[in-house]
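User: Teach me something about this protein's shape.
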Amino acid sequence: MGSQGGSTAGASRKPDSPIGPPRHWQQLNVLVVEDHSAYRLLLSWLLQKLGLGHELTTDGFMGLVAFTSRPFDLVISDCRMPFMDGYSMTRAIRRHEREHGLKRVPIIALTANLQNDSPQCCREAGMDAWLPKPLTLEQLHAVLVRWLPGSEGPQTGPEAAAPVASWPTRATLVTTFGSDLIVDQLLETLLVEAWEDQRVLRLARVTLNASLTTERLHRLVGSLVFLGGTGLESCAMSLIEQVHTDGVAVHSMQLEVFEARLCAYLEYLAEV
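Assistant: First, the predicted structure itself:
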């Protein structure tokens, strides 16, 4: 996921600016497939705030009807719905695209349970990324930037739209540590060590080395808690217990998702 490591910015960096959607998003359309009325309302409000045209449907069948009736630039679909679920709808959409020679439209899974709706299940159905419930504007914006036309382009591997709102900003870090110079020094040291731990963690996962996996997860927990809670540290602690009990193979997908979220966070820190 992008470049790893590298020096952090100098004191001239400014805190992140509020979300500002690209102007061309006003010409794009998103299909939302969600059986829960409250989430349809939330997604409609968030997409409207981001300047995106959208259509709301209540199940996979109605979503498929809408998709085959007019063009969309992206689909957001719940995984578990009555009548036709998101997986079945996605398979039908991919078949429709192949049969009619259409471009592949990104489909983003919306799920409240990553144990039942794992990234692997989403990929096997033909989905491209996933968003967790409950959903925030920052999470939605992050995944749309990756997948909407005219953006930087799709990323490979499991996608986890991280809760950027809870991540430290330069302003909060300077308040905590006292100066831009100290923040830069701390970030640069932390990033070098964390990227190395991430590299070894990936190797440990691929080689099914349980002891090395838990060791690197422990080290990463120390790095993650240093700058404040992100949610990643609690995930790492849970994985340590699971790997210790069951081994690496059983939890390989959860580890892969953790690595993807970790990489996104480290890349964010490199730009703070």
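Now, about its shape. The radius of gyration is 20 Å. The chain is about 50% helix and 10% strand. If you'd like, I can walk through any region in more detail.
User: That's plenty for now, thanks!
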